[in-house]
């Protein structure tokens, strides 16, 4: 399987405080990879490191289709232009703007206007509620609708890699099930690779193809999601279910 992304000896820092310690992980093209771990293990920091929002050392390479590009030292906006879209914890919608304007902002680096319009229509097909609320202020949407909007805004970039930080957080189980079903559809039908950070280990392992478990900033174990999900000793020791 071709690798879309690979990190080697990746460390990350907030000021003088080190949070990640020489971790290695990879994302296969067209697959969903999940990062699991307890609060404070470094899951969100890993996504921020990939986007170069925090100081990092080590190596991160992205296959852009024209060869591997080193991401460490690149600006965040340059990484976005390479096709990396980030759905942050807390959703990050522009609350005073309409649903439609939020989606347009997601495509701000694109110049293919006709394709942008088609992709917006695709988002409305994936999330029909957003079509119903396209002129509504994003801040007036429910939590689930805001998460749908955040994912759709990221898809408007037409990303090679979609980063998702705790997409289930604070949402009702039925809404979570709907969002994860659509994420699976996006991966299967559109071929979008994903890196998912998720507190709900069972949910993440059911969606992802491969999993990494972080423990205080280091990789404690990794393997195919099905293998980890079915290993009772691993579940009890690391995943708490």
Please, could you describe this protein's structure?
With 241 residues, the chain is of the alpha/beta class. The protein contains ten helices and ten strands. It has helices at residues 43-50, 76-81, 99-106, 113-126, 128-132, 143-155, 173-190, 201-207, 225-229, 232-239, and strands at residues 3-14, 17-28, 32-36, 55-63, 68-70, 84-87, 161-165, 193-197, 210-215, 218-224. A six-stranded mixed beta sheet has the order 6-7-8-3-9-10, with helices on both faces. Helix 3 (99-106) packs parallel to helix 6 (143-155). The radius of gyration is 17 Å and the shape is globular. The mean pLDDT is 93.
Coarse morphology:
globular
Largest sheet features: 6 strands, mixed
- Gyration radius, rounded: 17 Å
Number of helices: 10
Beta-strand content bin: 25-35%
Low-pLDDT residue spans: none
CA(first)-CA(last) distance: 30 Å
Q: Specify the structural class.
A: alpha/beta
Mean pLDDT: 93
Order of strands in the sheet with most strands: 6-7-8-3-9-10
Proportion of helical residues: 25-40%
- Write the element-wise H/E pattern from the N-terminal end onward: EEEHEEHEHHHHEHEHEEHH
Number of strands: 10
